[in-house]
Amino acid sequence: ARVRSYAAVDLGASSGRVMVGRVDPDSLELREAHRFPNRPVRVPEGLRWDVLALYAGVLDGLRAAGPVDSVGIDSWAVDYGLLDADGALLGNPVHYRDARTEGVAEKVWAALPAAELYTATGLQYAPFNTLYQLTAAAETAQLAQAWRLLLIPDLLSYWLTGEQGTELTNASTTQLIDPRTRDWAHGVADRLGIDLGLFAPLRRPGDAAGFLTPGALEATGLSGPVPVTAVGSHDTASAVAAVPATGPGFAYISTGTWSLAGLELTAPVLTEESRAANFTNELGLDGTVRYLRNIMGLWLLQECVREWGGPDLGALLLDAAKVPALRSVVDAEDAAFLAPGRMPERIARACRASGQPVPATPAEITRCILDSLALAHREAVADAERLADRPVDVVHMVGGGTRNALLCQLTADACGLPVVAGPTEASALGNVLAQARADGLVGDLAGMRRLLVRTQPLTRYEPRGDTVRWRAARARLAGG
Ligand code: ADP
Ligand code: LRH
After folding, report:
1. What are the Carbohydrate kinase FGGY C-terminal domain coordinates in residue numbering (predicted)?
2. DSSP labels for 117-134?
3. N or C, where is the chain less crowded by C-beta within 10 Å?
4. Average pLDDT, the chain
5. Does 299 contact ligand 2 (Cβ within 6 A)?
Protein backbone atom coordinates (compact mmCIF):
# COMPACT_ATOMS: atom_id res chain seq x y z
CA ALA A 1 0.00 0.00 0.00
CA ARG A 2 1.01 3.58 -0.55
CA VAL A 3 2.44 5.24 2.58
CA ARG A 4 2.73 8.98 2.58
CA SER A 5 4.02 11.54 5.10
CA TYR A 6 2.62 14.97 5.72
CA ALA A 7 3.98 17.78 7.88
CA ALA A 8 1.34 19.57 9.92
CA VAL A 9 2.35 22.98 11.22
CA ASP A 10 -0.06 23.76 14.08
CA LEU A 11 0.30 27.05 15.92
CA GLY A 12 -1.75 27.45 19.08
CA ALA A 13 -1.87 30.51 21.29
CA SER A 14 0.39 28.81 23.84
CA SER A 15 2.67 26.67 21.68
CA GLY A 16 3.53 25.83 18.11
CA ARG A 17 4.42 22.40 16.81
CA VAL A 18 5.37 20.65 13.64
CA MET A 19 3.96 17.12 13.57
CA VAL A 20 4.50 14.43 10.96
CA GLY A 21 1.61 12.18 9.99
CA ARG A 22 2.32 8.87 8.26
CA VAL A 23 -0.79 7.78 6.46
CA ASP A 24 -1.89 4.84 4.38
CA PRO A 25 -5.52 3.93 3.81
CA ASP A 26 -5.51 1.77 6.98
CA SER A 27 -3.15 3.50 9.38
CA LEU A 28 -2.39 6.91 10.76
CA GLU A 29 0.61 7.64 12.94
CA LEU A 30 1.51 11.03 14.29
CA ARG A 31 4.89 12.03 15.67
CA GLU A 32 6.12 15.32 17.03
CA ALA A 33 9.08 16.72 15.10
CA HIS A 34 9.39 19.99 17.00
CA ARG A 35 7.55 22.02 19.61
CA PHE A 36 8.24 25.59 20.59
CA PRO A 37 6.63 28.16 22.88
CA ASN A 38 4.44 30.92 21.48
CA ARG A 39 5.19 33.93 23.68
CA PRO A 40 3.40 37.19 22.91
CA VAL A 41 5.44 40.30 23.59
CA ARG A 42 4.23 43.55 25.12
CA VAL A 43 5.83 46.59 23.48
CA PRO A 44 4.88 50.22 24.20
CA GLU A 45 2.19 50.23 21.50
CA GLY A 46 0.53 47.05 22.73
CA LEU A 47 0.52 43.24 22.72
CA ARG A 48 2.13 41.65 19.65
CA TRP A 49 2.81 38.17 18.26
CA ASP A 50 6.47 37.31 17.70
CA VAL A 51 5.76 36.04 14.21
CA LEU A 52 9.43 35.80 13.19
CA ALA A 53 10.13 33.48 16.13
CA LEU A 54 7.13 31.41 15.04
CA TYR A 55 8.38 31.23 11.47
CA ALA A 56 11.83 30.21 12.74
CA GLY A 57 10.08 27.44 14.70
CA VAL A 58 8.29 26.34 11.53
CA LEU A 59 11.56 26.17 9.57
CA ASP A 60 13.32 24.26 12.39
CA GLY A 61 10.33 21.95 12.59
CA LEU A 62 10.32 21.19 8.88
CA ARG A 63 14.04 20.44 9.09
CA ALA A 64 13.39 18.04 11.99
CA ALA A 65 10.46 16.50 10.09
CA GLY A 66 12.65 15.37 7.18
CA PRO A 67 11.27 14.39 3.78
CA VAL A 68 7.49 14.81 3.49
CA ASP A 69 5.03 14.66 0.61
CA SER A 70 3.37 17.93 1.54
CA VAL A 71 3.05 20.61 4.22
CA GLY A 72 -0.11 22.11 5.75
CA ILE A 73 -0.43 25.05 8.14
CA ASP A 74 -3.08 25.93 10.71
CA SER A 75 -3.14 28.44 13.54
CA TRP A 76 -5.40 30.39 15.87
CA ALA A 77 -7.95 32.55 14.09
CA VAL A 78 -8.71 36.23 13.40
CA ASP A 79 -5.20 37.74 13.44
CA TYR A 80 -3.24 38.89 10.42
CA GLY A 81 -0.13 40.56 9.06
CA LEU A 82 -0.16 43.47 6.63
CA LEU A 83 2.17 43.63 3.64
CA ASP A 84 3.33 46.68 1.74
CA ALA A 85 3.36 46.95 -2.07
CA ASP A 86 6.69 45.09 -2.17
CA GLY A 87 5.22 42.19 -0.21
CA ALA A 88 7.18 43.04 2.95
CA LEU A 89 5.56 42.63 6.38
CA LEU A 90 4.49 45.90 7.98
CA GLY A 91 5.08 45.58 11.72
CA ASN A 92 4.36 42.73 14.10
CA PRO A 93 0.88 41.23 13.95
CA VAL A 94 -1.35 42.54 16.73
CA HIS A 95 -2.46 39.97 19.32
CA TYR A 96 -6.21 39.40 19.56
CA ARG A 97 -5.97 40.10 23.30
CA ASP A 98 -4.62 43.59 22.64
CA ALA A 99 -6.76 46.42 24.05
CA ARG A 100 -7.17 48.26 20.73
CA THR A 101 -10.65 46.85 20.10
CA GLU A 102 -12.15 48.17 23.36
CA GLY A 103 -15.27 50.19 22.57
CA VAL A 104 -14.97 49.58 18.82
CA ALA A 105 -18.01 47.31 18.47
CA GLU A 106 -20.37 50.12 19.50
CA LYS A 107 -19.02 52.25 16.62
CA VAL A 108 -19.48 49.40 14.16
CA TRP A 109 -23.03 48.74 15.35
CA ALA A 110 -23.91 52.42 14.89
CA ALA A 111 -23.21 51.94 11.17
CA LEU A 112 -24.48 48.37 10.92
CA PRO A 113 -26.79 47.12 13.69
CA ALA A 114 -25.57 44.00 15.50
CA ALA A 115 -28.67 42.03 14.48
CA GLU A 116 -28.07 42.74 10.77
CA LEU A 117 -24.40 41.91 11.14
CA TYR A 118 -25.33 38.54 12.62
CA THR A 119 -27.73 37.63 9.82
CA ALA A 120 -25.12 38.59 7.24
CA THR A 121 -22.08 36.86 8.78
CA GLY A 122 -23.34 34.40 11.41
CA LEU A 123 -20.49 35.32 13.72
CA GLN A 124 -20.81 35.67 17.48
CA TYR A 125 -19.76 38.94 18.98
CA ALA A 126 -16.15 38.80 20.06
CA PRO A 127 -14.19 42.04 20.33
CA PHE A 128 -11.30 40.49 18.44
CA ASN A 129 -13.12 39.44 15.25
CA THR A 130 -10.99 40.75 12.37
CA LEU A 131 -13.77 43.13 11.38
CA TYR A 132 -13.45 44.98 14.71
CA GLN A 133 -9.65 44.85 14.56
CA LEU A 134 -9.69 46.46 11.11
CA THR A 135 -12.12 49.10 12.32
CA ALA A 136 -9.82 49.83 15.27
CA ALA A 137 -6.90 50.18 12.83
CA ALA A 138 -8.83 52.40 10.40
CA GLU A 139 -6.86 55.61 10.92
CA THR A 140 -3.41 54.06 11.35
CA ALA A 141 -0.44 54.84 9.10
CA GLN A 142 0.22 51.11 8.83
CA LEU A 143 -3.17 50.23 7.36
CA ALA A 144 -2.95 53.21 4.98
CA GLN A 145 0.29 51.76 3.63
CA ALA A 146 -1.00 48.20 3.44
CA TRP A 147 -1.48 46.57 0.11
CA ARG A 148 -2.33 43.08 1.31
CA LEU A 149 -3.69 41.40 4.43
CA LEU A 150 -2.76 37.78 5.14
CA LEU A 151 -4.21 35.79 8.03
CA ILE A 152 -1.49 34.16 10.16
CA PRO A 153 -1.40 30.70 8.47
CA ASP A 154 -1.63 32.36 5.05
CA LEU A 155 1.27 34.66 5.96
CA LEU A 156 3.50 31.73 6.92
CA SER A 157 2.40 29.89 3.79
CA TYR A 158 3.34 32.98 1.75
CA TRP A 159 6.78 33.09 3.34
CA LEU A 160 7.32 29.41 2.50
CA THR A 161 6.02 29.54 -1.07
CA GLY A 162 5.85 33.15 -2.29
CA GLU A 163 2.15 32.59 -3.08
CA GLN A 164 -0.78 34.40 -1.50
CA GLY A 165 -4.26 33.16 -0.69
CA THR A 166 -6.98 33.39 1.96
CA GLU A 167 -8.07 30.03 3.27
CA LEU A 168 -11.84 29.86 3.74
CA THR A 169 -12.29 28.26 7.20
CA ASN A 170 -10.07 30.89 8.78
CA ALA A 171 -11.55 33.66 6.61
CA SER A 172 -14.90 32.74 8.18
CA THR A 173 -13.58 34.09 11.51
CA THR A 174 -13.00 37.58 10.08
CA GLN A 175 -16.75 38.34 10.15
CA LEU A 176 -16.46 39.29 6.48
CA ILE A 177 -17.78 36.00 5.07
CA ASP A 178 -21.41 35.06 4.43
CA PRO A 179 -21.86 31.52 5.81
CA ARG A 180 -24.68 30.79 3.34
CA THR A 181 -22.76 31.59 0.16
CA ARG A 182 -19.36 30.74 1.71
CA ASP A 183 -18.04 33.84 -0.05
CA TRP A 184 -17.20 37.40 0.94
CA ALA A 185 -19.94 39.49 2.57
CA HIS A 186 -19.53 42.44 0.20
CA GLY A 187 -22.45 44.37 1.69
CA VAL A 188 -20.94 44.28 5.19
CA ALA A 189 -17.51 45.39 3.99
CA ASP A 190 -19.01 48.24 1.93
CA ARG A 191 -21.13 49.54 4.79
CA LEU A 192 -18.10 49.59 7.12
CA GLY A 193 -15.59 50.94 4.64
CA ILE A 194 -13.44 47.81 4.72
CA ASP A 195 -11.51 47.20 1.50
CA LEU A 196 -11.92 43.53 0.57
CA GLY A 197 -9.22 44.12 -2.06
CA LEU A 198 -6.74 43.78 0.82
CA PHE A 199 -7.49 40.05 0.92
CA ALA A 200 -5.90 37.54 -1.44
CA PRO A 201 -8.29 35.24 -3.35
CA LEU A 202 -10.11 32.58 -1.34
CA ARG A 203 -8.88 29.02 -1.32
CA ARG A 204 -10.38 25.94 0.25
CA PRO A 205 -9.01 22.99 2.25
CA GLY A 206 -7.39 20.64 -0.24
CA ASP A 207 -6.41 23.36 -2.71
CA ALA A 208 -2.78 23.51 -3.83
CA ALA A 209 -1.00 26.44 -2.20
CA GLY A 210 2.36 26.46 -3.98
CA PHE A 211 5.78 24.90 -3.44
CA LEU A 212 8.59 25.69 -1.01
CA THR A 213 10.82 28.36 -2.54
CA PRO A 214 14.54 27.65 -3.06
CA GLY A 215 15.17 29.77 0.05
CA ALA A 216 12.71 27.76 2.13
CA LEU A 217 14.22 24.49 0.88
CA GLU A 218 17.64 25.69 1.93
CA ALA A 219 16.41 26.85 5.34
CA THR A 220 14.75 23.48 6.02
CA GLY A 221 17.31 21.17 4.40
CA LEU A 222 14.51 19.62 2.31
CA SER A 223 14.86 18.78 -1.35
CA GLY A 224 12.16 19.88 -3.71
CA PRO A 225 9.59 19.93 -4.96
CA VAL A 226 7.71 20.17 -1.62
CA PRO A 227 4.07 21.26 -2.09
CA VAL A 228 2.09 23.22 0.48
CA THR A 229 -1.56 22.18 0.65
CA ALA A 230 -4.35 24.36 2.04
CA VAL A 231 -5.95 22.65 5.04
CA GLY A 232 -8.60 23.84 7.47
CA SER A 233 -6.16 26.60 8.40
CA HIS A 234 -8.26 27.69 11.37
CA ASP A 235 -6.96 25.37 14.11
CA THR A 236 -10.49 24.79 15.37
CA ALA A 237 -11.68 23.77 11.88
CA SER A 238 -8.89 21.18 11.73
CA ALA A 239 -9.66 20.05 15.29
CA VAL A 240 -13.35 19.54 14.51
CA ALA A 241 -12.45 17.59 11.36
CA ALA A 242 -10.51 15.26 13.66
CA VAL A 243 -13.35 14.59 16.09
CA PRO A 244 -13.62 10.77 16.11
CA ALA A 245 -17.40 10.72 15.96
CA THR A 246 -19.21 7.56 14.95
CA GLY A 247 -22.80 8.83 14.73
CA PRO A 248 -24.77 12.00 14.07
CA GLY A 249 -25.64 12.88 17.71
CA PHE A 250 -22.31 14.28 18.81
CA ALA A 251 -21.26 17.58 20.32
CA TYR A 252 -17.59 18.54 20.45
CA ILE A 253 -15.43 20.60 22.74
CA SER A 254 -12.01 21.59 21.46
CA THR A 255 -10.12 22.34 24.67
CA GLY A 256 -6.85 24.27 24.76
CA THR A 257 -6.23 27.92 25.44
CA TRP A 258 -9.92 28.28 24.48
CA SER A 259 -12.81 25.86 24.80
CA LEU A 260 -14.81 25.81 21.59
CA ALA A 261 -18.01 23.92 22.25
CA GLY A 262 -20.83 23.14 19.86
CA LEU A 263 -22.13 21.12 16.93
CA GLU A 264 -21.26 20.36 13.34
CA LEU A 265 -24.14 21.42 11.10
CA THR A 266 -24.85 21.52 7.38
CA ALA A 267 -26.39 25.01 7.45
CA PRO A 268 -25.93 28.08 9.65
CA VAL A 269 -28.38 29.04 12.41
CA LEU A 270 -28.95 32.79 12.07
CA THR A 271 -31.90 33.36 14.39
CA GLU A 272 -32.14 36.21 16.85
CA GLU A 273 -32.22 33.65 19.67
CA SER A 274 -28.93 32.24 18.44
CA ARG A 275 -27.38 35.70 18.34
CA ALA A 276 -28.58 36.42 21.87
CA ALA A 277 -26.93 33.16 23.00
CA ASN A 278 -23.72 34.32 21.27
CA PHE A 279 -23.30 31.29 19.03
CA THR A 280 -21.04 31.53 16.03
CA ASN A 281 -21.34 29.90 12.60
CA GLU A 282 -17.78 29.31 11.44
CA LEU A 283 -17.04 27.25 8.35
CA GLY A 284 -15.64 23.74 8.39
CA LEU A 285 -14.52 21.13 5.90
CA ASP A 286 -16.89 19.66 3.29
CA GLY A 287 -19.42 22.47 3.44
CA THR A 288 -20.02 22.06 7.18
CA VAL A 289 -20.76 24.80 9.68
CA ARG A 290 -19.11 24.89 13.10
CA TYR A 291 -21.91 26.08 15.31
CA LEU A 292 -20.20 26.83 18.59
CA ARG A 293 -19.52 29.15 21.48
CA ASN A 294 -16.14 30.45 22.63
CA ILE A 295 -15.45 29.76 26.31
CA MET A 296 -12.37 31.26 28.01
CA GLY A 297 -10.89 27.79 28.35
CA LEU A 298 -7.63 26.77 30.00
CA TRP A 299 -6.36 30.30 29.44
CA LEU A 300 -7.79 30.97 32.90
CA LEU A 301 -5.51 28.30 34.36
CA GLN A 302 -2.50 29.16 32.18
CA GLU A 303 -2.60 32.72 33.42
CA CYS A 304 -2.85 31.65 37.08
CA VAL A 305 0.00 29.17 36.66
CA ARG A 306 2.09 31.97 35.15
CA GLU A 307 1.28 34.23 38.12
CA TRP A 308 2.19 31.43 40.56
CA GLY A 309 5.62 31.02 38.98
CA GLY A 310 4.92 27.82 37.06
CA PRO A 311 4.11 25.08 39.62
CA ASP A 312 3.88 21.47 38.42
CA LEU A 313 0.55 21.13 36.63
CA GLY A 314 0.07 17.44 37.47
CA ALA A 315 0.47 18.02 41.22
CA LEU A 316 -1.79 21.07 41.10
CA LEU A 317 -4.56 19.07 39.40
CA LEU A 318 -4.27 16.26 41.98
CA ASP A 319 -4.73 18.83 44.75
CA ALA A 320 -7.63 20.46 42.91
CA ALA A 321 -9.37 17.07 42.67
CA LYS A 322 -9.43 16.96 46.50
CA VAL A 323 -11.13 20.35 46.87
CA PRO A 324 -14.93 20.02 47.39
CA ALA A 325 -16.82 20.42 44.13
CA LEU A 326 -18.75 23.51 43.02
CA ARG A 327 -17.98 25.73 46.00
CA SER A 328 -17.74 28.73 43.71
CA VAL A 329 -17.94 29.23 39.96
CA VAL A 330 -17.26 32.13 37.63
CA ASP A 331 -18.73 32.91 34.21
CA ALA A 332 -16.16 31.37 31.86
CA GLU A 333 -17.62 33.29 28.93
CA ASP A 334 -17.11 36.70 30.50
CA ALA A 335 -14.91 38.93 28.33
CA ALA A 336 -13.58 40.38 31.59
CA PHE A 337 -11.13 37.44 31.56
CA LEU A 338 -9.83 38.12 28.04
CA ALA A 339 -6.81 40.30 28.81
CA PRO A 340 -3.65 38.88 30.38
CA GLY A 341 -2.53 39.50 33.96
CA ARG A 342 -3.62 39.18 37.61
CA MET A 343 -5.90 36.23 36.89
CA PRO A 344 -6.12 34.77 40.44
CA GLU A 345 -7.17 38.18 41.69
CA ARG A 346 -9.79 38.62 38.94
CA ILE A 347 -11.27 35.20 39.68
CA ALA A 348 -11.43 35.95 43.41
CA ARG A 349 -13.13 39.27 42.65
CA ALA A 350 -15.76 37.58 40.44
CA CYS A 351 -16.56 35.05 43.20
CA ARG A 352 -16.88 37.82 45.78
CA ALA A 353 -19.12 39.89 43.51
CA SER A 354 -21.54 36.96 43.06
CA GLY A 355 -21.65 36.29 46.82
CA GLN A 356 -19.79 32.98 46.72
CA PRO A 357 -16.90 31.73 48.86
CA VAL A 358 -13.64 33.25 47.63
CA PRO A 359 -11.10 30.56 46.60
CA ALA A 360 -7.70 31.33 48.12
CA THR A 361 -5.12 28.58 47.53
CA PRO A 362 -3.86 27.57 44.07
CA ALA A 363 -5.73 24.26 44.46
CA GLU A 364 -8.99 26.05 45.31
CA ILE A 365 -8.62 28.51 42.45
CA THR A 366 -7.79 25.69 40.04
CA ARG A 367 -10.88 23.79 41.19
CA CYS A 368 -13.00 26.89 40.71
CA ILE A 369 -11.67 27.25 37.15
CA LEU A 370 -12.29 23.61 36.21
CA ASP A 371 -15.78 23.57 37.73
CA SER A 372 -16.52 26.82 35.88
CA LEU A 373 -15.28 25.42 32.56
CA ALA A 374 -17.30 22.22 32.97
CA LEU A 375 -20.37 24.32 33.73
CA ALA A 376 -19.79 26.49 30.65
CA HIS A 377 -19.30 23.32 28.57
CA ARG A 378 -22.64 22.07 29.82
CA GLU A 379 -24.41 25.32 28.96
CA ALA A 380 -22.90 25.48 25.47
CA VAL A 381 -23.79 21.88 24.60
CA ALA A 382 -27.34 22.24 25.92
CA ASP A 383 -27.89 25.60 24.21
CA ALA A 384 -26.52 24.36 20.87
CA GLU A 385 -28.74 21.28 21.07
CA ARG A 386 -31.77 23.48 21.66
CA LEU A 387 -30.98 26.27 19.18
CA ALA A 388 -30.05 23.94 16.34
CA ASP A 389 -32.76 21.43 17.28
CA ARG A 390 -30.36 18.51 17.18
CA PRO A 391 -30.27 15.88 19.93
CA VAL A 392 -26.87 15.12 21.48
CA ASP A 393 -25.96 11.71 22.93
CA VAL A 394 -22.19 12.00 23.32
CA VAL A 395 -19.67 14.79 23.88
CA HIS A 396 -16.27 14.52 22.20
CA MET A 397 -13.41 16.42 23.80
CA VAL A 398 -10.27 16.99 21.72
CA GLY A 399 -7.09 19.06 22.17
CA GLY A 400 -4.45 19.60 24.86
CA GLY A 401 -7.08 19.94 27.59
CA THR A 402 -7.96 16.24 27.24
CA ARG A 403 -4.73 15.58 29.18
CA ASN A 404 -6.64 17.03 32.13
CA ALA A 405 -8.64 14.00 33.29
CA LEU A 406 -10.40 16.01 35.98
CA LEU A 407 -11.73 18.48 33.40
CA CYS A 408 -12.99 15.63 31.20
CA GLN A 409 -14.73 13.90 34.11
CA LEU A 410 -16.30 17.13 35.38
CA THR A 411 -17.53 17.88 31.86
CA ALA A 412 -19.19 14.45 31.66
CA ASP A 413 -20.76 15.04 35.09
CA ALA A 414 -22.00 18.53 34.21
CA CYS A 415 -23.42 17.51 30.83
CA GLY A 416 -24.92 14.31 32.16
CA LEU A 417 -23.52 12.64 29.03
CA PRO A 418 -20.60 10.36 28.26
CA VAL A 419 -17.44 12.17 27.19
CA VAL A 420 -15.05 10.58 24.70
CA ALA A 421 -11.66 12.28 25.11
CA GLY A 422 -8.99 12.40 22.41
CA PRO A 423 -7.12 12.91 20.25
CA THR A 424 -4.91 15.40 22.06
CA GLU A 425 -3.35 16.71 18.85
CA ALA A 426 -6.63 17.02 17.00
CA SER A 427 -5.69 20.13 15.01
CA ALA A 428 -2.54 18.50 13.69
CA LEU A 429 -4.47 15.33 12.80
CA GLY A 430 -7.17 17.28 10.98
CA ASN A 431 -4.41 19.12 9.15
CA VAL A 432 -2.70 15.84 8.15
CA LEU A 433 -5.99 14.27 7.05
CA ALA A 434 -6.91 17.24 4.85
CA GLN A 435 -3.60 16.74 3.07
CA ALA A 436 -4.05 12.97 2.82
CA ARG A 437 -7.44 13.56 1.36
CA ALA A 438 -6.16 16.03 -1.25
CA ASP A 439 -3.71 13.25 -2.11
CA GLY A 440 -6.56 10.74 -2.58
CA LEU A 441 -5.60 8.56 0.41
CA VAL A 442 -8.78 9.06 2.44
CA GLY A 443 -12.34 9.95 1.49
CA ASP A 444 -14.76 12.43 3.00
CA LEU A 445 -15.06 13.62 6.61
CA ALA A 446 -16.78 10.36 7.57
CA GLY A 447 -13.87 8.39 6.10
CA MET A 448 -11.36 10.52 7.99
CA ARG A 449 -13.26 9.90 11.21
CA ARG A 450 -13.40 6.15 10.66
CA LEU A 451 -9.62 6.15 10.30
CA LEU A 452 -9.27 8.15 13.54
CA VAL A 453 -11.57 5.81 15.47
CA ARG A 454 -9.51 2.81 14.30
CA THR A 455 -6.12 4.33 15.05
CA GLN A 456 -6.26 6.87 17.90
CA PRO A 457 -6.34 6.09 21.63
CA LEU A 458 -9.55 7.45 23.16
CA THR A 459 -10.73 7.58 26.79
CA ARG A 460 -14.35 7.38 27.83
CA TYR A 461 -15.75 9.17 30.90
CA GLU A 462 -19.21 8.24 32.17
CA PRO A 463 -21.28 10.92 33.93
CA ARG A 464 -21.42 10.59 37.73
CA GLY A 465 -24.31 11.71 39.91
CA ASP A 466 -27.17 13.79 38.64
CA THR A 467 -26.96 17.23 37.09
CA VAL A 468 -29.08 19.02 39.70
CA ARG A 469 -26.12 20.59 41.50
CA TRP A 470 -24.75 21.87 38.21
CA ARG A 471 -28.04 23.51 37.44
CA ALA A 472 -28.00 25.02 40.93
CA ALA A 473 -24.47 26.35 40.41
CA ARG A 474 -25.59 27.94 37.17
CA ALA A 475 -28.50 29.62 38.94
CA ARG A 476 -26.10 30.98 41.59
CA LEU A 477 -23.99 32.49 38.86
CA ALA A 478 -26.91 34.01 37.02
CA GLY A 479 -28.43 35.37 40.22
CA GLY A 480 -25.11 36.81 41.48
P1 ADP B 1 -3.35 25.75 22.26
O2 ADP B 1 -3.32 24.99 20.96
O3 ADP B 1 -4.51 26.65 22.39
O4 ADP B 1 -2.06 26.45 22.53
P5 ADP B 1 -3.31 23.09 23.51
O6 ADP B 1 -4.33 22.32 22.75
O7 ADP B 1 -1.88 22.81 23.24
O8 ADP B 1 -3.58 24.67 23.41
O9 ADP B 1 -3.62 22.86 25.04
C10 ADP B 1 -2.87 23.50 26.03
C11 ADP B 1 -3.46 23.20 27.39
O12 ADP B 1 -3.43 21.80 27.65
C13 ADP B 1 -2.69 23.84 28.52
O14 ADP B 1 -3.21 25.11 28.82
C15 ADP B 1 -2.87 22.87 29.68
O16 ADP B 1 -3.89 23.33 30.55
C17 ADP B 1 -3.31 21.57 29.04
N18 ADP B 1 -2.29 20.54 29.26
C19 ADP B 1 -1.18 20.34 28.55
N20 ADP B 1 -0.46 19.31 29.05
C21 ADP B 1 -1.13 18.87 30.14
C22 ADP B 1 -0.91 17.84 31.12
N23 ADP B 1 0.17 17.06 31.08
N24 ADP B 1 -1.85 17.69 32.08
C25 ADP B 1 -2.95 18.46 32.14
N26 ADP B 1 -3.19 19.45 31.26
C27 ADP B 1 -2.30 19.66 30.27
C1 LRH C 1 -8.40 28.68 19.12
C2 LRH C 1 -8.92 29.83 18.30
C3 LRH C 1 -10.43 30.01 18.43
C4 LRH C 1 -10.56 31.48 18.14
C5 LRH C 1 -9.39 32.03 18.92
C6 LRH C 1 -8.95 33.41 18.53
O7 LRH C 1 -7.02 28.53 19.01
O8 LRH C 1 -8.57 29.69 16.96
O9 LRH C 1 -11.19 29.20 17.57
O10 LRH C 1 -11.80 32.02 18.45
O11 LRH C 1 -8.36 31.06 18.76
Report:
1. 251-438
2. HHHHH-PPP-TTSHHHHH
3. N
4. 97
5. no
Question: How many Å lie between the centroid of ligand 1 and the Cα of residue 313?
Answer: 10
Among residues 235, 331, 371, 413, the one annotated as catalytic is 235
Establish whether residue 236 lines the binding site of ligand 2, counting it when its CB lies within 6 angstroms of any ligand atom: yes
Instruction: Report which protein residue has its CA nearest ligand 2's atom 7.
Output: 76
Phi, psi of 13 (to 5 degrees): -65, -25
List CB contacts of 144: < 8 A, sequence separation 6 or more. none
Whether residue 478 is predicted with pLDDT greater than 80 in this model: the reply is: no
DSSP-derived 3-state class of residue 224: coil
123-172 pLDDT per residue, tens: 999 999 999 999 999 999 999 999 999 999 999 999 999 999 999 999 99
DSSP state of 359: -
- Residue 251, C-beta contacts closer than 8 angstroms, at least 6 positions apart: 261, 262, 263, 381, 384, 385, 392, 394, 395, 396
Please tell me whether residue 202 adopts helix, strand or coil conformation. strand
Closest CA to 294 of 325, 254, 339: 254
For 270, the enclosing helix (H) or strand (E) is none
405-415 and 362-388 helices cross at what angle (nearest 10)?
40
Ligand 1, residues at Cβ distance < 6 Å: 12-15, 256-257, 298, 301-302, 313, 399-401, 403-404
